[in-house]
């Protein structure tokens, strides 16, 4: 019986119904998550792709970075710099309320296939395969992927400025990001195309991985309401990575659809 | 009406006397009498007096006077009254972490209204009426007094003391921290 279950699980993994978090870590790390001021203050943020929370590795392109203001406007950083290890942005936070920083590149179609036993990849949807896919290709499958790289910054009074779009995987704070506190339970909800979704794989890691032997990654799976809850043991900055993949619904261009969310946040001292 | 008031106050006085004579029975006495007189007390719009002897501890090295906030939360952890806010620049208000998160950031007017300048090392006897931020006397019951002390380029301390507003006087002592000396609190009805 155990063997059958194991085989079943292996099959699920191989066809992508269950997957561990696999995406390369990426993040936006703001200089401040919470600010106080009467006249506004400068904010800076780093953008990097790195597997070491929060030490930088490879600069993340931030051409598409936008800031959703409490008034609902989408703004660009006032200046950006791309180095080798990280990109940096400057932005003046003028008003009270919560700002959402996002660095989301357009959704992409990726096709995997095998040729003479080798795994190959193509940046193409199912409609674009003819002519691109070599003869003799087997195990062809196409995935529509979309990743959200985001963070919230609050000046003075928080506002519920979560900018839900209703497409692909999204994280909706139930606990406001500026109300996450050490020793108190925090809750987020995951939705896929606007609907609460169970089975989202979530990993939460406290900064400082370089300086401890055990990375102490908290692994969670969203419940039937799409929710995950956790209690940060200590104050500090955390990276949350969420991934979800399923058979594509109402999609002619892909066999699977896959979403990811990379959220950095802080748990405050209580 | 006056007669009733006088009668109530003399009853109160008796209770206070009795409880100070016999500390062993005071808790039982207080719960019995507070239920009997609490409605009369709160409708009489008298607020208890809270005396806090705040001590800012001596430090070594570079010293910036601490930002300090003191406030009361009710038994549901809701902030009901900020007694004091010692601070300078708004930029560092967020570092009074709990007070900022629960109170300061949500109420600019309150912040402006209670702000006063920072103080250095020393003892500060402070007296407050047990009223809420709107100036109404707080009803009898259980509260927690919080004092948060934060120094730029220095340490932070948050100390708390559960207190009871009732018909009985009570004294409390908060242990010293690296940022605060021993803090004595007296609540008088």
Q: Main interface pair?
A: A-B, 16 and 15 residues
Question: Which spans of chain B of ≥5 residues are poorly predicted at pLDDT below 50?
Answer: 10-44
Give the percentage of residues in beta strands of chain A: over 45%
Major beta-sheet overview of chain B: 5 strands, mixed
Ends apart, CA distance between termini of chain B: 21 Å
Radius of gyration of chain B: 18 Å
Number of distinct beta strands of chain A: 20
- Could you say which structural class the secondary elements and strand pairing of chain A correspond to? mainly beta
Strand ordering within the main sheet of chain B: 4-3-2-6-7
Helix content of chain A: under 10%
What's the helix count of chain A? 1
Give the topology string of chain B: H per helix, E per strand.
HHEEEHHEEEEEE
What attributes characterize this protein structure?
heterodimer; A: 270 residues; mainly beta; eleven-stranded mixed sheet; five-stranded antiparallel sheet; B: 189 residues; alpha+beta; four-stranded antiparallel sheet; 4 helices; globular
